[in-house]
Amino acid sequence: MKTIEEEIDEYFVRPLMKIFDGGEAPEGWNIRKKAEQYNRSFHDQVWMIKFHHRMKPIYWRLLSGDYSESIDCSDVLYPVSLWMYAYDELGKLVGEHNIMDLLNSAYYRVGGLYNFFHLLRCIMDQSYRPYIKQWPENAIDKELEKLEVSGDSVRGEMLCVLSAYLMIEHTDLSEKHKDFLEEQLEQNWDYLTNVYSFMVRRIVGSHFKGFVQIINNVAVAQSFHPYVHIFRKAVLMRKDELFVTPKSKEKLARHMAKLEDILKTTSQREDLDELCNIIFGSDFEEMMKTRYMSYDELDEQRRELQDSVGKLSSEMEKVTKKFAEAVESRVPVDLIETQLLRLDPSTASAIFGNLSLLLAKDPAWAKIQPELSEKIMQKFMPQTPVVNCGTYYGEGAMHEDHRSQVYLAPESNASNKMMLDSKTNRQ
Predict the structure, then answer these.
(1) What is the pTM of this model?
(2) Range of the domain at 49
(3) Is the pLDDT score of 72 beyond 80?
(4) How far apart are CA 27 and CA 34, in angstroms?
(5) C-alpha span between 168 and 68 (Å, rounded)
């Protein structure tokens, strides 16, 4: 006689594993018929505990998207999901794995966001909440920071969901109130994606191509009108970053006028204010201060750098040539020296090095080279600043009086002395 565990494995686990792997169901096996056959057992608490325990590998494969897309598999996913969500230790099962595995699964599946939200709400109703501390918050934040240049709408939307849950969890509110805020989050998500799009500087949760379209979307959706005051703040916070051309600024002004009209004609509700103050609060804004260059911006920087280096190289070549011609033409040494020392030390040194190569056999250059080299090197040496502290010369004094000067030099330089006026150092 088979044990309960052996029956569950034979009639449920192994057939499902085979189907999830892309194989065909055993001949004559049908998940709905098996469920009907074991209907009485499904109402037995002890039997169900054992059933869920044996089905955990199947549940995780369903959650993580580790299953075939065959027709047989699609027929079994729904009943398996019903059993999974009835498992009162689902939160613990999810907590044993990386939440990003679930995000990745939802990202690649149709209806992923709906299922992702449903899963989060379900496990929060159980004992999952402590596991939020294990979420890779730094990795989530970093992805959000980079959304502007290297993300996409679908994945970005799911990252925003995780960010919102983290922000709510960081508060000192009761679990009951956190549950309430998370429910608000899900119920108002269609509206909140418009706010998130501006806050993360990347359109999430829609197929709109431009931020002006997001503003227009809020303006035409009457259900969003009672919360325009929240959205308007997000637009104003990001307008200088997202609308930089004269044409885009003109479009922004026209659409902002629509929002202003809505504010004048529609009573604003405050029931989302608390939630938005939490999920878009100072912690979120601090995280979003980091901005990464887009590929176009990086390419522009590369081109500008190449142009600058090219121009500098050309100018250096011209200046070096002029100095070489001056030496060869026997221009007075003091004039050459004065002009070269006008340059900053690095530039003067670079030109000097080039001249030494060009004029290696020139007797005039050989004559002035050593002294000029020494003077350029002195330009690299830090000058010791002198601070006058007041003059205290005795009557008729003809000597150089150093009593009122402070020489500021590094402590390690023993050759430099610190001299303080006796009137200010009487200890």
Answers:
(1) 0.67
(2) 4-209
(3) no
(4) 13
(5) 36
